[in-house]
Write a structure and sequence with these properties.
Number of helices: 8
Largest sheet: 7 strands, mixed
CATH superfamily of the largest domain: Metal-dependent hydrolases
Oligomer: single chain
Structural class: alpha+beta
Distance between the termini: 31 Å
CATH class of the largest domain: Alpha Beta
């Protein structure tokens, strides 16, 4: 499922009504959104007073009625560093999180069965050096099981250090827009751009299945033509998006590779066979067919091609590998 789990409306510091977030998500082909308006930060309160912090979810849920879009309840815990900003999604009642004691806020979120993740840990307004760093309070939160995920992409920024923290502490990977204005304006959607999304590999399209998958770290992130996630999930995803068609046999067969994804894949050939019409690194353009000639040196009924996907990351400095069977 394609998800954006961090966004704002006029019911905190955003510039649009919740129904607009729903319409944008449907236009962008998303499966799931969560509106995560700030609990504590309410700059529009003089113009739009609303004592019920669940209101943005209720309005979005109403706007999504009769559509395929799944709307998940959520909110943003908004504190100075440490601990910084965190989202709590699948929360039952945001109003009960509107408390002064930050540790009690996290404990209440856990009590409600929420999935809590650390927002933009590399945000320069709270980390001037841009380096996501664990503090004593973050360790305390982890020890109590009070958060289980971390954003590696937020808005237009990426944090390699956040990815390293995710791997070290077994945190779920997320990438979200944190959009406040219009998505089209923020990401140049009419010109072919797109927001960051979290890909959740759930068994079915339901809130329960999604939360289970997220707890089990079954996610990946896509933004700026880059995929980030584990080899376990990225390899099948990429392989499933490619269709091979063999054209002829002989010692230099021609292979047509159809890329049905929205991503341009930058591949490095790791196969036992060199390529006749490309160097070892080449690109499979999104929604296009690329002709690849392979030097098998003999007439084979079938053979396997192996590639490293250079614009995907399974770790901070490692790329996932895929295998394609040619028959």
């Amino acid at each position: 499922m394609k998800c954006d789990l961090h966004m704002h409306t006029v019911l905190s510091d955003g510039n649009v009504w919740p129904s607009i977030r729903v319409q944008e998500a449907i236009r962008d082909g998303l499966d799931v959104i969560s509106i995560t308006d700030h609990i504590e930060y309410q700059p529009h309160f003089l113009d739009i007073p609303h004592p019920d912090r669940n209101r943005s979810y209720e309005l979005a849920l109403k706007a999504a009625k009769g559509t395929e879009l799944l709307v998940i309840p959520g909110t943003e815990i908004t504190r100075s560093m440490p601990p910084g900003h965190f989202n709590a999604i699948f929360v039952k009642d945001v109003n009960k999180l509107n408390e002064k004691d930050v540790m009690e806020v996290f404990r209440e979120a856990k009590k409600q069965g929420a999935f809590v993740f650390w927002n933009h840990p590399h945000w320069t307004s709270q980390r001037p050096d841009g380096v996501a760093t664990m503090t004593e309070m973050h360790h305390e939160l982890l020890e109590e099981g009070l958060f289980t995920g971390i954003e590696i992409y937020n808005h237009s920024t990426y944090s390699q250090e956040a990815l390293e923290l995710a791997q070290k502490y077994n945190l779920t990977l997320l990438g979200n827009s944190d959009v406040h204005g219009l998505v089209d304006w923020s990401y140049g959607v009419p010109e072919g751009g797109h927001r960051p999304v979290t890909l959740v590999f759930a068994k079915e399209k339901s809130a329960q299945a999604m939360q289970t998958a997220m707890v089990n770290r079954q996610t990946a992130v896509w933004f700026k033509n880059t995929l980030v996630g584990s080899q376990e999930f990225l390899a099948p995803l990429i392989e499933a998006s490619l269709m091979l068609e063999r054209n002829g046999k002989g010692p230099v067969p021609t292979i047509l590779i159809h890329n049905h994804s929205d991503a341009d894949y930058i591949l490095e050939n790791l196969s036992d066979y060199s390529l006749h019409n490309f160097a070892s690194v080449f690109v499979l353009k999104a929604h296009e067919t690329t002709t690849v000639q392979v030097k098998t040196l003999e007439n084979l009924d079938s053979f396997e091609m192996k590639f490293k996907v250079l614009n995907a990351y399974s770790e901070a400095d490692e790329h996932p590998e895929i295998k394609l069977l040619v028959e």
